[in-house]
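hey m, so remember when u said the tokens were messed up on ur end? i reran from scratch. heres the input so u can diff it against urs
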Amino acid sequence: MASTGGADPPKLQLTVLGSADAFSSGACLNATYLFQTPRSTFLLDSGPAVLYALKRQRLDPADIDFVIISHFHGDHYGGLPFLLLEYMFERPRTRPFLILGPPGIEERVRSLFRLLYCDVAAKPMPFELRFRELVPEQRTTIADVEILPVRVPHQEDEVALALRLDAGGARVLYSGDTPWMDRFFELARGVDVFLCECTGYDSGLGRHVQFTTLQPLLARLECRRLVLMHLGREMRAHAATLGVECATDGLVIRD
């Protein structure tokens, strides 16, 4: 995405709060992305250090309208209990808070909150906590954000999602965690930015993309900007020589 460079404000500002894999490779934080549009501020995934990530960038957690979760691995949704604590005690919230995610999102979040803070979780919240399940291939709209969830083969027994977002007039594709699948050629066509996971360089890391698989496919991607994220240790070591943009914590993308 290019900066507007004029008087008009950007349609979308995307801040990478956490760009690393589950191991915080390169001393970077877990997957957390903040989107700001003319009508909404929201998180895409919420790693365990979400509050630290927001406050390090001088961003107010109280501004967040909703959170979208791609799948139920701790490095992607483990920060939600800390957001709830923030809204109960540090920045008391009165307006509703919405969490969207794969089927089972409400049970998983409430269970995690009880596990980490059983005494607090038993108390009534001063705000309404809402949940909405994202069903693969069914679009849903929140404010000025249209969400297309697409199931990806990252997990066998649970639903993991890639997400294409039409947000404030810009379009973003987020692969979530997944091995490469050719449907990304279609989903990425014409998007302003494709946040594509690339955990490994040339070694197999389970159900993730590795760069040696992605590299010969790059010329076929028809997106305006490709940013690799969820980077593991090998990818951090090679990032400067790949010829492809790699996300770092604090990266800001504007359209």
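this time it looks ok to me. DSSP finds eight helices and 13 strands in the chain. if urs says something different then somethings off w ur setup not the seq
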